[in-house]
Amino acid sequence: MNKAFSPSSRPVAIWLLVGVGMIIVQVLLGGITRLSGSGLSITEWEPVKGALPPLSEQQWLLQFEKYKQTPQYHLLNFDFTLKDFKFIFFWEWFHRFWARLIGVVFLVPFIIFIVQKRFKQEMIRPMIILFLLGALQGAVGWIMVASGLTGDAVYVEPTRLALHFIFALGLLCYTFWFALLLLVPGDKMVINAPLRKLNWLLLVVVFIQLLYGALMAGHKAAAAAPTWPDINGAFIPSNLFPAPDGMLNLLENKITIHFIHRSLAYFILLLIILWTVRAYSIKSSSLFNKTKLWPVMIVCLQVLLGIFSVLTSIKIVPNKWGLFEWVAQLHQLVAMLLLLSLVWMLYLVRDKQIKQ
Prior knowledge:
1% strand, mainly alpha, two-stranded parallel ribbon, 356 residues, 2 strands, single chain, 2 domains, flat
């Protein structure tokens, strides 16, 4: 079996799975802050002092005055009252508070497990990587927020939002993989190199798709083409790379981003159907048999949610939470479940037998 697997490692694995759940919640909270326009309500990064929200009317007024200096207030929310500000402040504060809570949930059991000597030698390096990924994610988050506090920015810069999202998903996948190393013994795995290669291809394409999903969100590109199956009357828009931006349209043009995101969705659906057909043709373990339908079931739901997200985008009302926002949040959640299902399959399907 894999070296890291051991019955005594089960508490560590459960701790990591709790982390997986908390990271999923954190990403969803990030989605709420984006959809509610809350991400720029806190203008300073105070890792310790900022753990508490304002506790007096004077503190609230001070925070509101700081927000009034931002471009978002001057250009978009100039009619905000203190009550409006408190609403957006809460979601950004709670997003940051949950990140701090993840740090506590990581650190306290980590110390306890060291005292109990539950960490094997081969666990040390993954633990260090896990810690560094978490710290990097926090730094990228502040860089993202800072991009919306100067100039004429009304929201955070979309490519930095996408980078923040992708780093979060990387941390999510790494934590989940580490937990699987401690939970699933080698005799539960399947040996099939071609299926594993296809799985790798799927993961690469899905990560690109998730990157474009974040760009869709950052540019609010769903509302740029609220029609389906066509894109504003055309299946292939005629002006995907207008001058003078050229290849920059891949990251900045709403219709180009929208077209790529839709096209990748169909491509991923076909790839997962192909993967599922091949999965049924191989000799496999009971664990693999019980879970091999997960990716195709999740991707079908995800495509439907993507369509509903596009069609309901015409109902977007600034600073109001409605049908589109609920569908978009569910779309983001199912995207993470799809990603984790593919990581699960990559763990179960190997190209060669793991050393005992």
